[in-house]
Amino acid sequence: MDPEDRAGYNRRPPPDVSATEFVDYSGDSAGLPFAPVAAESELLLMYFGYLSCPDVCPTTLAELSNALNLMPDADAERISVGMVSVDPDRDEGSAISTYLDVFVEKNHGLLAPDEASLAASAEAFGVLYEVEDHEPGDTSYEVGHSATVYVVDDQGLIIWELGFSADRDPQLTADTLESILTERYG
Amino acid sequence: MKNRYALVVALAVAVSLIGAACSSSSDDACGGVKIENAWVRLPPGPNTALYMDITNTSDESFALSGASSDFATTYELHESKMSDGQMIMVKVPGQEIPVAAGATTKLEPGGLHVMAIDIQEPLAVGDEKAFTLTFTNECSKEITAPVEAAEMPGSEG
Fold first, then answer.
1. Which of residues 24-83 of A touch B (CB under 8 A)?
2. Where are the domains of chain B?
3. At the fourth CATH level, which superfamily is domain B29-148?
4. Model's pTM, two decimal places?
């Protein structure tokens, strides 16, 4: 695919997010610190959302899931998905991992270690989020968040971004990811 | 048995005729309400969304004003939209989704949807879920909607 035909866009220079810190709650890595850097010659798709989100978050994750299913296995296996919850009061780490399991096998359910760290990480990515004021135990508050998927390479650089789309063709997303893999790693 | 069945049918017809004669009955009010392409998203979390196309074939506008079913405790009418670079979900003002006379309002991913909050039972792809939709024209309509995993109905196949 010609890079001009890809879905999404990039920023120049590519933002470096390798120094941001999260805690991973998925699989064998559960409880371990996580830096958003893809494994060698792989891509990490990072997303900030929350689990009570019934519309935008599952639409995005379903698009990624469909796109990965359309890619050759050898390429799809080089892509993992990390989701950071911006709503730690409601979302337990293990629940984020369970949520991601519905969509993608290679996943990282992530929380920031604390509120200040989440704010710093969001700034590094360029994520905006807002959680409505609520009392402890209240579960019916609103959350707003950037719904962009950040494509991170094995150096921790955001080399591509996919903005939210409710009806993007998953084949276009798959071709875009293939094109990025080829361009970045040959 | 046959006769009893015939009697039941006759009674049902009689009841429906009585209903049709009464202008405020829900059957009558639902004459202009057409629901198509309804589906429920397979919920990965505690909440999910119900989508559909609502067509108003009458010459009076109406609005969807609520939904209910037995698998979630609360239903709200919501809209996802962009605001200053953030995708936010807001409650629809007045909890009414208008459908103009002769028009179709689409409830679809990334836009308007019925939010089902606090799901009480596990859902699986292929389940058919019954809902009651209520409208401002006094129509109360029963529908069933399949549970789908994909982001758009039919896109997985």
1. 51-59, 61-63, 66
2. 29-148
3. PCu(A)C copper chaperone (2.60.40.1890)
4. 0.82
